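Practice set, problem 2.
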Amino acid sequence: MRKSVFEVLRREGLTHLKIAYDWRKDHFSLFSAREWDRDTPFREYNRSFTLLTLCPTEGVYRNSGETRALFAKHGLEEHLRQIMELMRKGRHILLDCYYHEEMDIRFVNHIHSDKRGVNNLHSSLFMGGIRRHEPGEDEIDVFIDGMNLGRGMTFKNVAARLPMGGCKVTVQMEPVDLENLDQVGFLAYANDRTRNTTGPDMRFPPELADVMKAHFSLHITGGPKGPLGPTGTPTAHGAHMAVKQGARFLWGSESLKDKTVAVQGLGAVGFPLAEDFLADGARLVVCDRDPEAVRKLVAASPEGAVRVVEPEAILGVEADIFAPAAVGGILGEHTIPELKFRMIMGPANNVLKASSQEEEYALAARIAERGILYQVEWVHNIAGVMAGYEEYVHQERSSRERLMENVGKLCTEQTWENLNGARREGVTPTEHAYRSVEREVYGE
């Protein structure tokens, strides 16, 4: 039997599951329900029905004890215990799960904190992207990814000075068909239920935002037809400004001329970041699983300025700066001892292989012991959520110029303050960054 919370929903004919956690009291509460009929036409969401008017012919609602009993009935108590332990470790307040059996869509919003979103005068309380996972992936791995990213979004929103709580949506499904308005409508419905304003992330096309906004909901941003366009360039700009402050801190100058920079990933963020480094006069070592992206960068670069390595080799190269711009979870107990960099600073999310602040502190300390300057990425990878908020609040009046100016200013100032504050207090920049905002996230 599949180890999945959605297996319980499938077997019981249910559509909705909540796992809530009060970390102050260390108390969990569960809820499960059938809240719509099998033939509900989600292409009609916000037309013939809304969040408030959608009702099943025969609703089913299970309280906490009854929902726990369902997991026991189907032999998934240990799976539930694992999920709860992950929530406890990261202090996550809610997993909000929506299941559409006929389309095999398993939607989860991994909500870490609502503190900054409460009373923000918006219909959304949270901001966090939506990413797709393959249907056959192990659910625990998907939940770990979603929870780590959701926790990072809480702190990223603080760094971006936004009145939003932090979350991340993961969806296990086949690639979305943007012409299938039942699929897109269901994603819009589930996202709106969680009071989240999202943006397409890995494995969802940017055009999802345009289709969802045109037909269903304004609680998604970042589409090609949106007023700000793709967020890759602003995100790269923020990381670039942070790296320059790292160089100033290490070498006394923001100049990156003749520095060797290893860039992992040449996607929507990594490519413009590599271009910024080349404009600085840096030498690059790059990798990407898309050979066309590599070819395009090399063709546009001065001869000899770019060296290409296989993706598996990038962590082993020797360079002044490592700028990760791909998947997370790459720096752990086994990889840190082999690193040959002076600085690690880039836009990739959740670079450390960790699921709690305490685990991040330990790995950041290991990096510092190697003489490597490292700053947790949520301090400077803030442009995406800033762009999302700009579009959400201002819509067609959004300003790309205002966004770029604010991103550059915040990433420059906050990185410089964080690096120097960490040195004054004798802690890693990662621990100092968390300490600086922890009360705002977890305090009364």
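Problem 2, part (b): a different protein.
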Amino acid sequence: MAQGLLTTGVGAIEPIRIGVSGPFTGGSSPMGLSMRDGIRLAAQEINAAGGILGRPLRLIERDDEARPERGAQVAQELINREKIVAGLGIVNTGVALASQLFYQQAHVPMITSVATGSIITRQFLPPQYPDNYIFRVSAPDSLQAAMIVEEVVVRRHLRKLAILHDSTNYGQLGREDLERALERHGIKPVAVERFNIRDVDMTPQLARARASGAEAILTYGLGPELAHLANGMVRLGWKVPLVGSWALNMPNFIDNAGPNAEGTRMPQTFIQEGNTPARQAFIDKYRKSFGVERIPVAPAAAQGYDSMLLLAAAIRQAKRTDGPALRNALEALQERVEGIVMVYDRPFSRTDHEAIDSTRILVIGEVRNRHVVFAYDEDRKRDAQHK
């Protein structure tokens, strides 16, 4: 689906074609659709203001279905057939690892809006690759794992911890990040259990984790399976803290687990709370544009929006749209970009393609009454200072 986004005042000039890919159907779709809609909002605002270099933006959208093989096909189609100048999106780590090789080979910049696997921006480093075309605005799992462990070990003083993760690249790599973060505190997990996508009964894994004496469960998975996990804990009559990666904010976790999701905590880049005028304006515009009260996955929407703003700044700076020029501009961005997650002041460099490289940007969210809110007032106050 191509989003023309041509508005009055821009005119029928050759548009700047930007690829947007993510899971718009299936279990990961709440993240993909939130991200896509955040990108659309930013593009609409840019076009309403006259576009970039006198040209409108056109979003070329493709559903990667959260499948690595489909993601690879989508990347090639966007680059070779649709002639995009850059890509935005990608939600699933496995899809990112399968598809970003094509962006790299074509010298087309890809700003990853949501996928969090720590390896994503490190696939194409010197000396093997003189130039890296993969950038990211989401929080790497290495940072999330550090915050998850800080929450349970430092703030809650728990040391007997079980890890439950899914069998995807996301879950496996996230487990490794959690184990490394625990090791820095001199802790080994008392249990490590795996489940598959579409599993509905985690009773055996939970029973083994409980038998190990675990005082909390650390998770790396996606919403539908995490809901079965939370519901399974209640069926077993086992009540311990559930703390995991940012995907615990997905509506197909919160709604499917219902009261069993209450109190769950996770790192977040953005919580749907208007603690600054810019964030309130974004929330209001999202609600009005898409007819929802609760943004399905608020961080994905905010990160999608911000990734579009960063790409737009790079195009303005480069004054052209070829890949090497855009990569150079992203690596030395002069414009201070006021995003929703944070203000981006030289977010990337030649050697660092992570916009978020400090846990200071992240906050801990908690599920309360089917909404994700700030778990700590101190996080709320600190978060407002990023704007």
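Answer key, part (b): The two ends are 34 Å apart (CA to CA). Residues 4-11 have pLDDT under 50 and may be disordered.
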